[in-house]
Every structure is written in structure tokens, then in C-alpha cells.
Automatic annotation (TrEMBL):
One of its GO terms (molecular function) is transmembrane transporter activity. This is Monosaccharide ABC transporter membrane protein, CUT2 family. It is a multi-pass membrane protein. One of its GO terms (cellular component) is plasma membrane. The keyword Cell cycle does not apply. Keywords: Cell membrane, Membrane, Transmembrane, Transmembrane helix.
């Protein structure tokens, strides 16, 4: 017969084992590895170039991460479902162009332009979701088509010319102003970074505390089982793509405010860095697992790497080579992680 003290010991061992199991999950280990890699990159580039840790350069990294990080958050929702969205970059550009049309061409109030950008992103994302859910077009092909479609529409709507926001008062403040800097002049963190972190917190709550988040993970884990349980899978998938599109609208506002213009030829290529950030952060390309925190860490890794190579005067073509290698390694790490799981 087991003595009470033995029972207590066994219970404590069970709790300790369960705690270790939760801490050392493959996704958690991937996040720890990504965070450690970020620290190593910061240390390496700081040693390689004294200019790297200067305040202006740090602010530049934060500003660049804001846009890429928002796009990576948008991609996280879709990738967790087991899908992929290649249109996030050109959708960002298209929402910026639409905002420019509302504010510069039609001279409407700024809040209307902001709503128009978010709504355009949500509608375009929902169309991608409809192509995938209702028409059964593979996500890769559906979003590839949307990427090209939106790139063309951006050029058509803008007449192949940049749209400048010089006549729109305070539009630059969305991204470039510093709310924190007004109170702490020595810490002029751009508003774009605050928007990134706020969006990350909201997105994390949505993924972990709402029905949309539960179905996002469920669709990535076993879509057929969700369908057989009576859930309207198509409706939820369209909603998820719509939320992702609206987040791309936020990225469009940030980059337009940062450049104080909507550049219709910009956008293509951003989707690769966004997907790389998501995978580096521990989200599985096969779906069913992922975190917003990991995605943010991945986005910072991509920004620090790009900025550091530029500071060290590495040629642009070699920067692209390094980015490609990072993507390959991140995908391979995801494959190894799935095998261990």
C-alpha cells in the first residue's frame, strides 16, 4: 500500500513532468532558439560595426520591423490553418493606394481613408479565402493569382504613379511620430512600433481566447475532423483570410505613412520575408501550431540581419542570397520539428 508521503511525491513528480513537457514542446524550443539567435545577431553586428548600436540605426530597425512584423502577423493566421498567402505584400500596397485615392484624389477625411484601407484589405483577403474554401483552389495558386491581380490593380488605380500625401495633414504621424517621445524625449520610439506591439497583443488574444482562434488551430490540425463535427469550415476559413487581409491594411497604412506616399510598384517580395519570419518563430508550415510572440521574434531577426549586412557594406545581391538561405534553413528546421513531434 502506498503511503501518503509516497502519493504526494508521485503527484509532485507528475506535476513536474507535466510542467517540463509544456515548457520543452518543439514550438517552445523553437521560440527559445529564435530568441537566442536574435541575441547572437545583435551581439555579432555590434562587435562588427560600432554604428550598428547607434540610436538612429536602432530606430531604423524598429521602423522596418513594424511593417514586416505586421505582415508576418497576417501570415501567421493563414499559415496556422495549413494555408499560405503570397499576396500579403501586394495587398499591403493596394490598400495604401486605395487610401491615397480617398485622401489625395477625393480629399476625404483621414479617418475615412484609414477605414477604406482596412476594409479593402478585409475584402481582398475574404476573396482569397473564398477562392480557397468555396472553389477549392489550392492556397498557393489562389494567393499567387491575387498577388498578380493586386499588383496590376495598384498600377491601374494609381495610373502607374506614386500618390503623395503632402496635402493630408498629420498622415505621417501614423508611422513616424512618437507618442512615447512626447513624454520621454530620450526614447523616441516610432508610433509604428507601438502599433505593431498593440496588434501583436490583440492578435495573440484572438488566437488563444476566441472562437476564431480555436478554429484557426483546429483547421490546421485536422480540417476534415472539424468539418465532420458540423462546423461550417468554409465560413471560418473565409473569416480567417479576411482578418489576415485587414491586418495587411494596417501594414499598408504604416508603409504609406512612413514614405508619405503610396508606391504602386512596391510590395512584391515582402511576402517572402513575412513567411520566413513566421517559420523562424516556430509556426509550422503544415498548420496547427504557432504563436504571435514567435512571429515577432522572427520578424526582428529578419530586420536585424538585413540591417546588419547593410551596415557591414555587404552587397545587395549577397543580402538576397543570405535571406534565401535563412528561408531554406527555417523550413528545414520546421521539417525536423515535425518529425520529432
Amino acid at each position: 500500500m502506498t503511503q501518503p508521503s509516497d502519493t504526494s511525491t508521485l503527484a509532485n513528480q507528475g506535476r513536474s513532468s507535466g510542467f517540463r513537457a509544456r515548457i520543452f514542446t518543439p514550438t517552445a524550443l523553437q521560440k527559445l532558439l529564435a530568441f537566442g539567435s536574435l541575441i547572437l545577431l545583435l551581439a555579432f553586428f555590434s562587435f562588427a560595426s560600432p554604428a550598428f548600436m547607434q540610436m538612429d540605426n536602432m530606430l531604423g530597425i524598429l521602423q522596418a520591423t513594424a511593417v514586416n512584423g505586421v505582415l508576418a502577423i497576417a501570415s501567421t493566421f493563414v499559415i496556422i490553418t495549413g494555408g499560405i498567402d503570397l499576396s500579403v505584400g501586394t495587398l499591403m500596397t493596394f490598400t495604401a493606394v486605395i487610401c491615397g485615392v480617398f485622401l489625395t484624389f477625393w480629399h476625404l477625411p483621414m479617418w475615412i481613408g484609414v477605414i477604406a484601407a482596412l476594409a479593402t484589405g478585409a475584402i481582398c483577403g475574404s476573396i482569397s479565402g473564398t477562392l480557397t474554401a468555396k472553389m477549392k483552389i489550392p492556397p498557393f495558386i489562389a494567393t499567387l493569382g491575387m498577388m498578380l491581380l493586386l499588383k496590376g490593380l495598384s498600377l491601374v488605380v494609381s495610373s502607374d504613379k506614386p500618390i503623395y500625401f503632402t496635402d493630408t495633414e498629420n498622415f505621417y504621424m501614423i508611422s513616424q511620430d512618437s507618442l512615447i517621445g512626447h513624454f520621454l524625449p530620450s526614447l523616441p520610439v516610432p508610433n509604428a512600433v507601438l502599433i505593431l506591439f498593440f496588434l501583436a497583443i490583440v492578435s495573440s488574444i484572438v488566437l488563444n481566447r476566441t472562437a476564431l482562434g480555436r478554429y484557426t488551430f483546429a483547421l490546421g490540425s485536422n480540417e476534415e475532423a472539424v468539418r465532420l463535427s458540423g462546423v461550417n469550415v468554409d465560413r471560418w476559413k473565409i473569416a480567417i483570410y479576411g482578418v489576415s487581409g485587414a491586418i495587411c491594411g494596417v501594414a499598408g497604412l504604416l508603409i504609406a505613412s512612413r514614405l508619405n506616399s503610396a508606391q504602386p510598384a512596391l510590395g512584391q517580395g515582402y511576402e517572402l520575408e513575412a513567411i520566413a519570419a513566421v517559420v523562424i518563430g516556430g509556426t509550422s508550415l503544415s498548420g496547427g501550431s504557432g504563436t504571435i510572440l514567435g512571429t515577432i521574434i522572427g520578424a526582428f531577426i529578419m530586420s536585424v540581419l538585413t540591417n546588419g549586412l547593410r551596415i557591414m557594406s555587404v552587397a545587395q545581391e549577397w543580402q538576397i542570397v543570405v535571406t534565401g538561405l535563412i528561408i531554406i534553413l527555417a523550413v528545414y528546421a520546421d521539417i525536423l520539428r515535425r518529425r520529432k513531434s
